[in-house]
Amino acid sequence: MSNSIKSPNSAKPSSTQSAVDRLVQQIKDYIRSNALSVGDSLPSEREVGEKFSAARNTVREAFRILKTYGVVEIKPKIGAVIVNRHLPAALDLFSFQLAISPESFQDIQGFRRLIEVGSVDRLFKYVTDADIQKLYDINLALLNASGAKEGAEQDFIFHVSMLAISRNNTVVDVFSMMKPMVSRLMETGKEQDGLQKTYEHHQQIIDALAARDRLAFTYFMSAHLDQGMKYVRDSIESKASR
Prior knowledge:
By secondary structure, the chain is mainly α. The chain is built from 12 helices and 2 strands, in the order αααββααααααααα. Strands 1-2 form a two-stranded antiparallel sheet. The longest helix has 28 residues, at 214-241.
């Protein structure tokens, strides 16, 4: 596809925008107006700067922002290429949000209850014997982990793998975005109680899933998430007593 630039009519910058923000919007409008798609190359930094009367540093910063948001990837000798990595980019940004309050952890656990307990119908509909065996294997790897950090990693893999059975990619993607904070909570739990308790909870959940026992699955999954809430409450109480 041709890289000749036609300034889109929609690019009418606001006086309140910074030069970089304005250029980012102009490039996004250019992509839309020229119907560019994944794999297409954008014009060079020099061409973009000339067309939109932008300084070299402004152009570079605009491309950096587009890369951060998963819109483009900078390739050697090629330049900026349109990509589709919005989720990985979101994960990268989300991973910076580590200074999170215990209250926010409560919200996260509440959200987990909505999607993990709430997915019961789809889990029962799509689960296979192979899925059940995979969950048992992951849980055994958790029990045999070398420490809390590795155990937390296996714990997260367990929950992602279970949600994947629902065949709802959006649910899996959203849960994956919470990994930095969920993993921290999981690691805290294993530092306090070791690996055995999580292993036993998981075994109960898998057994209920294998038996398609809705009442047991809901009970054991809720109890498992309640244990996570206990760690959150303990953290809040500890913080309040200081």
